[in-house]
Structure formats: structure tokens, C-alpha cells
């Protein structure tokens, strides 16, 4: 090279005059010293001047991308990559082609460049991930898993280049040799490959995103998704424990995503109160007179009584017998009361399904189910609303002469035994 020839042509006569036996070695030492001095000077300028100036401007900016790039050390690693390139160029400029140190320095510089280029890519991907987390529109995409896949592929590629540099062979030869190891590689990287495919499917089908409420009983997961990685999904349960689920399990197994509930603005109440079948009866005049005082039942009872009386007159029903005609029951009236209560409740969503239905009776009584939606999805508020409604239900049951069905307890048995003892003594 011309620069080497100029430097060598200027120094060699002087070195041959003073140290003829060590002229070649002295020239190599001077070239190495020149490489070191220039490299240190460039390092000082880049890290002590340029990067500090960039850091000062970054601290005062409100732009997220600038802060993310600097916090992930992207600029520092790019500067180190540039320094490796400069060392490689200097070795070719100042050292002669027949110098034994030239291939060693260039090989070391090559590995330096490859390593810090890989780290720079890591920093870039991490910074882009930080930026995406600040934007709500990007949170739905499992970028972390995709970026981890890119990191894995880049690491394998850089590793092949480093090995090819060390052995002095083309990376194409190594890649052709890897073809025979495909089955082994598939086995070793099975989880990352399955995780990458699962992450793409989750994103393409909008099945899961960070922040969703996920419930997966098989893995004991019931909480908020905090991270979607290449091989695992982390779920913070409501008791603040962390459950990790293999990413591909979200494709192969079934799970429940509560996002639809959260976005709808309403959360379902589906709970029953079991009534004692023996307490169900027809309402008499006194009952009707008492219940008509209720604001929620006044309109219902007025219309229902007119409808029943008109039907009985048309059918000429003999009302002296309970098996004839139509009558109001305390259970049906109570069901109408609950429906009216829910329709005027300030915390019940009126645009969603709302009903009070009677389920199939059994040995545990008659289930009367409340099926409605609250107008909030917050867990604590939802539970409070639901509890308030059922508190009222239990308290108002005696007004309709209804009883909750309960299995006899030990206390009931002792009371029955205590009542039977005086009767037995009296009989004796």
C-alpha cells in the first residue's frame, strides 16, 4: 500500500542507519505504537467528548427514542464497533504485508467488530422494545418474543462468522456442514422454534397481549400477563405470585382471556339463591295489599291483577278451589320484584342481558338465579355490588314469606333433641 511504502520508505533508512540489525522489528514497534496512540485518541474523542455531549442532550429531551437508545448503550457499543473497524484499517495501513502480527491483529479486530456489532443489535432491539411499551397501540404485539428470535438467529450467524474467521474458512462451508445437523438443531432449539411460531399466531389472531387477564387452570395461572417471551409467558396472579407458561402451550391448550369482558364495560353476575320449596304459596288479599306499598311492585301488581281477574272471568273459574283459575304466587312476585330492582339499580348495565330466572328444582331447593352485568369491570367494585344485591335479597325474603333452603346443621339437631325430651317426659 502507498501509505505503508511512504512510512516505511521514510523510516527504514533512518532505522537501518542506527539499528540495522533490528530495523524491521523497530519499524513494527513504531507502527504498533502508532496504532495504539491513534486508537486511544479516537476512544477519548468518542467516549469523553461525543458520547458525553449526546448524553447531556438526551437528559434534557422529552423524546422517548433518544433516551431509550442511550439507556440501552447503543451509541457506546456502536462507538466500540467503529473503533474495531479503525484498528483493522490501521493495521493494513501501517503494518507491512509480510509482518506476522498483521493477520493476528486483523483477526482480533474482526472478532471485536463482530462481537460489538452483535451487542449493538441487541441494544437496538431492546431500545425498540422499550419504545413500543410506551405506545398503547404496540402493546398488543408480542415483540419481545420476535426480538428474542432475531437475537438468537443473529447470535448463531455471528458465531459462525467468528468460527470461520478463526479457522480461516468460508462461512458457506460451515453452513453446508450444518445441513447434516438439522435434526439435532431442531431438537436443541425446539422450544424457541415453537415459541416463535406461537408468538406469531398469538399476534396474528389477536389472542393475547401484555396486560390481558389470563386464566389457565392447568398451569395455575389466573392474573395479568406481564411478559410474552420467546419460550415463556409470565402471568402475575392476583396473589402476586408469578406463573410461567410455555408460549406454545397457549396454542396447543385452551385458556380464557378476560379482555373481552374488560373492553365491554360490564362484568357478569350469575349467582343463585336457593329457596325452600315448602315456603312457596299463593298470595292472599292481605299479602297483595301489603306488597302494593312497594314502589317497585305497584305497577306490576296492578297490571298482573287486572290480567288475572280478566282471565278468570272469561273462563268462569270457580275461585273457591285453589286448583281453579290463575293466582299470583309469592315466588313469581318475588322474581318480578328482583327484575325491577335490577332495572333501576345504578350499578347494573342496562344495555346487557338482564334477567331473573328459575332453575330446575332439586333436593337443595328452588334455585332463583340473578343473571345481569355490572357497569364496572373493577374486581373490588364488582364484588361489592354483587354482595349488596344479595344482602338485600336475603333481607327482603321474609316480606314475601319465603325462606332460604338450608341443610340442617348440628345446632338444628340439638334444638330438635332439646324440644323432644320434654315431650317424652310428659308422655311418660
From TrEMBL:
Give the InterPro entries listed for this entry.
Answer: LSM_dom_sf (IPR010920), MS_channel_C (IPR049278), MscS_beta-dom_sf (IPR023408), MscS_channel_2nd (IPR006685), YbdG (IPR030192)
An example GO BP is: cellular response to osmotic stress
Q: Where is the Mechanosensitive ion channel MscS C-terminal domain?
A: 338-401
| Principal subcellular localization | membrane
Q: Provide the protein name.
A: Mechanosensing system component YbdG
Q: Which residues form the Mechanosensitive ion channel MscS domain?
A: 191-259
Q: Which UniProt keywords apply?
A: Cell inner membrane, Cell membrane, Membrane, Stress response, Transmembrane, Transmembrane helix
Amino acid at each position: 500500500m502507498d501509505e505503508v511504502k511512504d512510512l516505511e520508505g521514510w523510516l527504514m533508512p533512518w532505522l537501518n542507519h542506527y539499528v540495522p540489525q533490528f530495523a524491521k522489528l523497530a519499524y513494527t514497534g513504531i507502527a504498533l505504537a502508532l496504532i495504539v496512540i491513534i486508537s486511544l485518541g479516537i476512544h477519548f474523542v468518542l467516549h469523553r467528548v461525543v458520547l458525553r455531549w449526546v448524553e447531556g442532550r438526551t437528559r434534557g429531551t422529552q423524546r422517548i427514542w433518544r433516551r431509550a437508545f442511550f439507556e440501552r448503550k447503543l451509541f457506546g457499543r456502536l462507538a466500540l464497533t467503529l473503533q474495531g473497524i479503525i484498528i483493522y484499517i490501521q493495521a493494513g495501513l501501517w503494518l507491512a504485508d509480510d509482518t506476522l502480527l498483521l493477520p493476528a491483529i486483523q483477526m482480533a479486530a474482526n472478532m471485536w467488530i463482530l462481537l460489538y456489532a452483535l451487542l449493538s443489535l441487541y441494544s437496538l432491539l431492546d431500545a425498540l422494545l422499550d419504545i413500543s411499551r410506551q405506545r398503547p397501540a404496540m402493546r398488543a404485539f408480542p415483540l419481545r418474543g420476535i426480538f428474542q428470535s432475531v437475537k438468537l438467529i443473529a447470535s448463531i450467524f455471528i458465531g459462525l462468522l467468528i468460527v470461520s474467521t478463526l479457522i480461516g474458512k468460508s462461512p458457506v462451508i460451515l453452513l453446508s456442514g450444518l445441513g447434516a445437523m438439522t435434526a439435532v438443531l431442531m431438537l436443541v432449539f425446539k422450544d424457541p422454534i415453537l415459541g416463535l411460531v406461537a408468538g406469531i399466531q398469538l399476534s396474528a389472531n389477536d389472542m393475547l397481549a401484555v396486560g390481558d387477564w389470563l386464566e389457565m387452570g392447568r398451569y395455575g395461572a389466573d392474573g395479568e400477563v406481564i411478559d410474552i417471551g420467546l419460550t415463556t409467558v409470565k402471568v402475575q396472579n392476583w396473589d402476586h405470585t408469578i406463573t410461567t407458561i410455555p408460549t406454545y402451550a397457549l396454542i396447543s391448550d385452551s385458556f380464557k382471556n378476560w379482555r373481552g369482558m374488560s373492553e365491554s364495560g360490564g362484568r357478569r353476575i350469575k349467582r343463585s339463591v336457593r329457596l325452600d320449596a315448602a315456603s312457596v304459596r299463593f298470595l292472599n288479599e292481605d299479602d297483595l295489599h301489603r306488597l302494593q306499598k312497594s314502589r317497585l311492585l305497584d305497577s306490576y301488581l296492578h297490571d298482573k291483577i287486572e290480567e288475572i281477574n280478566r282471565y278468570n272471568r272469561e273462563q268462569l273459574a270457580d275461585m273457591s278451589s285453589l286448583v281453579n283459575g290463575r293466582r299470583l304466587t309469592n315466588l313469581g312476585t318475588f322474581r318480578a320484584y328482583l327484575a325491577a330492582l335490577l332495572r333501576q339499580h345504578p350499578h347494573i348495565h342496562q344495555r346487557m342481558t338482564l334477567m331473573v330466572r328459575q332453575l330446575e328444582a332439586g333436593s337443595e331447593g328452588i334455585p332463583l338465579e340473578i343473571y345481569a352485568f355490572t357497569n364496572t369491570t373493577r374486581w373490588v367494585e364488582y364484588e361489592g355490588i354483587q354482595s349488596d344485591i344479595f344482602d338485600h335479597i336475603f333481607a327482603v325474603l321474609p316480606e314475601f314469606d319465603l325462606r332460604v333452603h338450608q341443610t340442617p346443621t348440628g345446632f338444628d339437631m340439638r334444638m330438635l333433641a332439646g324440644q323432644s325430651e320434654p315431650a317424652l317426659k310428659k308422655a311418660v
